[in-house]
Design a protein that fits this description.
The protein is of the alpha+beta class. The chain has helices at about 50-75, 190-195, 215-225, 275-285, 325-330, and strands at about 80-85, 95-100, 110, 115, 125-130, 145-150, 155-160, 165, 170, 180-185, 200-205, 210-215, 230-235, 255-260, 265-270, 290-295, 295-300, 300-305, 305-310, 315, 335, 340-350, 355. The longest helix is centred in the N-terminal third of the chain and has 26 residues, at about 50-75.
Length: about 375
């Protein structure tokens, strides 16, 4: 332990000169000739503290520790990276894309609270969120999903012949979205299909009839090919129950709704039409016991005819509309489940080709 400037009786403080001979108050003895004897000095001692090697190591620890803390803060508060594992967002996002997600847009979540964001959720945003049906108690611990926001709080939304309709306005399809098309006539050669990016995406229905998974541009190219009679969206029958939410209405994935997306502060009347849509919201995401009896509706055991939503919700779809489990299947995304907005592809790896997709690196994720 280093001295603190005081010491026990008889001890020397490191760095003081050696004690001089003689009695208290007496002048020092002089040698012959009257010249004072030189006063001996204590040998220099190492400066208090650590050795240069230890100091260098401590400096590196501070630098590395600071970098780790900065990276953690950046991940919690600003950006996080995710890899695309499935085809549900093709061709906007491909399997093997690595995307950068901005938490700043909607506000980062810290210790169960959301900080203010720099932007609102917009229709058309490609958003990353925690999977609502996941049973983990903490929403932030649930599996991350990525889909496109097509319905905002308060919207009345429907899907008509695969096209999203909000109110009376039909929304444009995302530029690189993919869907199933029914092709009549004679298909182009395998080489031509491969050149169009359709290798492995064609199934035969019957003689002269095919189902092709294609983007709008690919469908247009097929439509112009010699021997092709028609290329039209392949539609499921209305009311076939392929859309599991809400189960009571047996909607089709291609002809869905209308449903009203819940909005914070909005009060809904509980009845035969609203109950199948809002019951899951009330129970799973707003933490209330909800029950329908022969006499009416009970919320937390109390009779009521209405319910007021505590937070905003969103309706999301995959860009590959025939290959996506989304709000048509499991319902709305609560605001407290949102992680952030996907803003860019920073790397892309084609596992089938075993190569980097250089043309996708740095691509923004827009419409």
């Amino acid at each position: 332990m280093e001295p603190d400037g005081s010491s026990p009786e008889g001890a020397l403080v490191r760095g003081d000169p050696a004690p001089l001979a003689g009695g208290p108050g007496d002048p020092p003895a002089l040698p012959d000739g009257g010249r004072p004897a030189p006063v001996p000095h204590a040998a220099p001692t190492p400066a208090a503290g650590r050795s240069p090697g230890v100091q260098s190591l401590a400096g590196w620890v501070r630098v590395v520790g600071g970098a780790i803390l900065f990276a953690l803060a950046l991940r919690v508060l600003a950006f996080e990276a995710y890899r695309i594992p499935s085809t549900s967002m093709e061709d906007t996002l491909l399997v093997g894309d690595f995307v950068l997600v901005s938490k700043l847009h909607y506000g980062p979540r810290v210790l169960g609270h959301r900080l203010p964001g720099v932007d609102d959720v917009d229709r058309g945003d490609v958003a990353v969120f925690n999977y609502p049906p996941d049973l983990a108690p903490d929403p932030a611990r649930r599996t991350p999903y990525i889909k496109r926001v097509v319905g905002l709080p308060g919207d009345t939304l429907a899907v008509v012949a695969k096209r999203v309709q909000v109110g009376r306005e039909v929304e444009a399809l995302p530029q690189r979205s993919r869907q199933s098309w029914q092709v009549e006539g004679r298909l182009p050669s395998a080489e031509r299909l491969a050149a169009l990016g359709l290798a492995g995406r064609v199934q035969r229905l019957a003689r002269g009839a095919w189902v092709v998974s294609a983007t709008g541009d690919q469908a247009a190219a097929l439509r112009a090919a010699p021997g092709v009679a028609s290329v039209e969206p392949r539609l499921r029958p209305p009311g076939d129950g392929s859309a599991a939410f809400p189960a009571a209405f047996h909607y089709s994935l291609d002809d869905y709704g209308p449903v009203v997306v819940p909005r914070q502060g909005t009060t809904v009347v509980l009845d035969d039409l609203s109950w199948p849509v809002v019951r899951t919201v009330i129970e799973r995401f707003e933490g209330h016991a909800a029950e329908r009896t022969a006499r009416g509706f009970l919320i937390d055991g109390r009779p009521t005819e209405t319910y007021t939503f505590a937070q905003d919700y969103f309706f999301v779809l995959g860009d590959s509309r025939d290959d996506s489990a989304d709000s048509r299947t499991w319902g709305f995304v609560p605001f407290d489940h949102l992680i952030g907005k996907a803003v860019a592809v920073y790397f892309s790896w084609d596992e089938n080709a075993g190569a980097v997709r250089w043309d996708r690196i740095g691509r923004g994720i827009g419409e």
